[in-house]
Amino acid sequence: MVIVTGLSGAGKTQALRCLEDMGYFCVDNLPPTLIPKFAELCAQTNRSINNIALVVDIRGGEFFQSLSEVLGQLEQGGIEYEILFLEASDEVLVRRYKESRRRHPLGTHGEVLRNIREERVLLEEVRGRAGKIIDTSNLKPQELKDKLADLFGGEGDNSQLLITVISFGFKYGIPMDSDLVIDVRFLPNPYYDPAMRLLSGNEPIVRDFVFNSPVTTAFMDKFTDLVEFLIPCYIEEGKTTLMIAIGCTGGMHRSVALANRLGDVLRGKDYRVTVSHRDIGRVG
């Protein structure tokens, strides 16, 4: 459990989005008194929820005052937690509030700087208990994301990118959310063999027909090299999902066989990969 707290405007919402991308179950502005019950519910659910991130801050009003007591309850119950405290300089926080035109949670008056300083006093105790403190004054969103990945991400960068390989037929249109689109209509087509026309690229006879071509073998080597070159670049840029769409005429034979092969290769590199075939069995 990661309890995200800190100064308003320091980037808690951005941090929560980053943790969600890393697979954390995230809840914003949860009253502290509900944390033990929430942890209990997560432990009892059939869904495997191993990582939780909660934003708890002064927006909770009088509920926030019970945070110290609740943390003691978590410790007594054997629930492990980590406090992530985000802060920034007064100058930066004032500028961010002026740019966003939002009111400070303590904004009973119009002096933003005064509100920020009052909030610092209120958060002194929880800051002292924080195991991780990040000053976001000079951090870009991607730099914050990198810091959070180092602190709370899984082993290796591969866990940060979910790759979907999808086969499709050009006659039905390109998948709308594709990142990379590859046209393999130049490869030998099993459709013209009556014995394979009604089969799909999942069948060994169709797969072998497609890959027995030297053109297919040469293309697959070059295509795989390109994808393996691009993936680390996408991870470094902060991309969390990648859809690779491979298309042939009807989405039944060539694209299916190549999508399966690419998925097998990438899984062998320990990437998180799913393979789907959009147009198998489609008629018309």
Describe it for me?
This protein has 284 residues and is an alpha/beta fold. Helix content is 41%, strand content 17%. The chain has helices spanning 12-21, 35-44, 67-76, 90-100, 112-122, 124-129, 141-152, 204-211, 214-237, 254-267, and strands spanning 2-6, 25-28, 52-55, 82-87, 132-135, 162-169, 180-183, 241-248, 272-277. The chain has a five-stranded parallel beta sheet with strand order 2-3-1-4-5. The protein has a four-stranded parallel beta sheet with strand order 7-8-6-9, with helices on one face. The N and C termini lie far apart (51 Å).
Short description:
The protein is 41% helix and 17% strand. By secondary structure, the chain is α/β, with parallel strands linked by helices.
> Order of strands side by side in the largest beta sheet?
2-3-1-4-5
Order of helices and strands: EHEHEHEHHHEHEEHHEHE
- What is the straight-line distance between the termini? 51 Å
Biggest sheet architecture: 5 strands, parallel
Radius of gyration, taken over Cα atoms and rounded to an integer in Å = 25 Å
Structural class: alpha/beta
The number of E-state strands comes to 9
Mean pLDDT: 89
The proportion of residues forming helix, as a percent range, comes to 40-55%
User: Poorly predicted ranges (pLDDT <50, ≥5 residues)?
Assistant: none
* Range of strand content: 15-25%
Overall shape: elongated
Q: Please work out how many helical segments DSSP would assign.
A: 10
